[in-house]
Write a structure and sequence with these properties.
7 copies of one chain form a homoheptamer. By secondary structure, the first copy, chain A, is mainly beta. Chain A has a single domain, classed as 10 Kd Chaperonin, Protein Cpn10, Chain O, CATH 2.30.33. In chain A, 5% of the residues lie in helices and 50% in strands. In chain A, the strands form 2 sheets. The first copy, chain A, has a 6-stranded antiparallel β-sheet. In chain A, strands 5-6 form a two-stranded antiparallel sheet. The longest helix of chain A is centred in the first third of the chain and has 5 residues, at 17-21. Chain A binds chain B through residues 1-7, 9, 11, 42, 44-45, 48, 50-52, 73-79, 81, 84, and chain B through 23-28, 31-35, 49-51, 53, 55-56, 58-59, 66, 68, 87-88, 90-96. Chains A, B, C, D, E, F, G: Heptamer of 7 subunits arranged in a ring. Interacts with the chaperonin GroEL.
Chain lengths: 96, 96, 96, 96, 96, 96, 96
Amino acid sequence: MKLKPLNDRVLVKRLESEEVSAGGIIIPDTAKEKPMKGKIVAAGPGKADDSGKIIPMTVKEGDAVLFNKYAGTEIKIDGVEHLVMREDDILAIIEM
Amino acid sequence: MKLKPLNDRVLVKRLESEEVSAGGIIIPDTAKEKPMKGKIVAAGPGKADDSGKIIPMTVKEGDAVLFNKYAGTEIKIDGVEHLVMREDDILAIIEM
Amino acid sequence: MKLKPLNDRVLVKRLESEEVSAGGIIIPDTAKEKPMKGKIVAAGPGKADDSGKIIPMTVKEGDAVLFNKYAGTEIKIDGVEHLVMREDDILAIIEM
Amino acid sequence: MKLKPLNDRVLVKRLESEEVSAGGIIIPDTAKEKPMKGKIVAAGPGKADDSGKIIPMTVKEGDAVLFNKYAGTEIKIDGVEHLVMREDDILAIIEM
Amino acid sequence: MKLKPLNDRVLVKRLESEEVSAGGIIIPDTAKEKPMKGKIVAAGPGKADDSGKIIPMTVKEGDAVLFNKYAGTEIKIDGVEHLVMREDDILAIIEM
Amino acid sequence: MKLKPLNDRVLVKRLESEEVSAGGIIIPDTAKEKPMKGKIVAAGPGKADDSGKIIPMTVKEGDAVLFNKYAGTEIKIDGVEHLVMREDDILAIIEM
Amino acid sequence: MKLKPLNDRVLVKRLESEEVSAGGIIIPDTAKEKPMKGKIVAAGPGKADDSGKIIPMTVKEGDAVLFNKYAGTEIKIDGVEHLVMREDDILAIIEM
């Protein structure tokens, strides 16, 4: 069983803090809005423009991404914390 | 007698918690915004774009879907809890 | 004398609770937002799009419809309660 | 001297309560939002669309109309109460 | 020295109350939103539409107009009270 | 070193009160929203329209302008007070 | 490892106060909204317009920029304070 996000939504697996601090990116403790790291598990087809044409997504399955802490809706899949959010809530792709 | 949702609205039958926890997706108790599972019972034709052309729906009758807890308007049909909501309130299709 | 709703507005006669509970649709007492049943008495021509072209209405005179409790403006015609609302306030057409 | 409303605005003469209750339309005392009756005294040319083209008005001078109680800006002309409002504040034309 | 309003703005000289009540238009004392009379002293070229094309103004220098009391920004020119406001804040042109 | 404003932003040098009152324009002390005088020091290329095409600016370097008191972001350059604001915050060009 | 900002977002390295005051631009202590200096470390490809076409960015990697104090989301990379913000939060490019 898997989730297929609608429109421009993505399903993101939140990465652990251990992983987050690894690799040089440290989320500051006192930041007003703390970004978090995650991995795209599934991506929707994209949002329809005003004429119904689908605008393709920038992110794809497997991408490691940074997103705002308060973005999206939480959901547990097999006990693991995931989030469903819109692509626009993603700040940046982490390239390695 | 049946309901025919208008525009981009769908009629969703809310699935029981037993069904929700089956299959690996567990809705966290403490989530700020808890998504819920349901089944599309009827779907509207789609929203008209700025020139009046209908943009077709992504979900269809029979789809199992996840949606935000506070989405839509509640209605009981033959004693069973249903919701009328906009397609954009649906987070993801659950594929099995 | 009759009312001719403007643009995408409709004139709806609110149906009695007795009629509402007949036919299997029961409006829950504790619902956060309770939909109500009514009958379209008159429908406007439709909303103009950005270029002034009229987008035709989905509902028509005689349709039984569900709408949100707080939609529209109340008006009594010959002692009977009616509502003037926008088509977008209608949730679904009740087919029989 | 007369007023020429701008864009999609209309100048409406508010009709007396006596007139309002005549003819079968009675405004309920306890309605959350009470519509009122009036007569169009002057109508603007219509609103410009995004490309500057004028979208013609639906109402015209002489039309009896229903409008929301709190719509528009009050103005007295020769001691008679009038309102300047946008066409979209008009709910319906009263045909006789 | 003169002011050249930008885009769809106009420079309006507020007319005195004496002038306002002359000619049959009396501004009610208890109105929730009192319109005021003024004369267009200078008008901008018009607002650019989405493609940068200028939509011409409806009002022009010399027009007597009605506008909402709280519209615009006050400025004194040679001791006389003026207002800079957008054309859309003007309710109607007063024709004589 | 100089500043190049982005999009439809301008860099404005605020003119002294002495200069403001000179030339007949006096800013009223009790105005709800007091406009201020300034000189355009640098202007951006203009805002991109929906298709990415640049809509050219109306104001240019050297123009004397009126703007709302609370517009823009303050910045000191070589000890002189400047503001970075959007062109739409400018009320009028002062021609001399 | 590096960050690739999405859409019209940029990754900005905040410049130290020492650097900020150098070069003639002094950020006032009492300004209601204080702009800050930074350097573009990475820029996204640009925002998609309504038809999905990418509108190219104005700023590029290496640009020194001014931005509002409260813009963006803070993130530390290898202990250095960075911000992810939208291009529209940038006020001006500092040319040297």
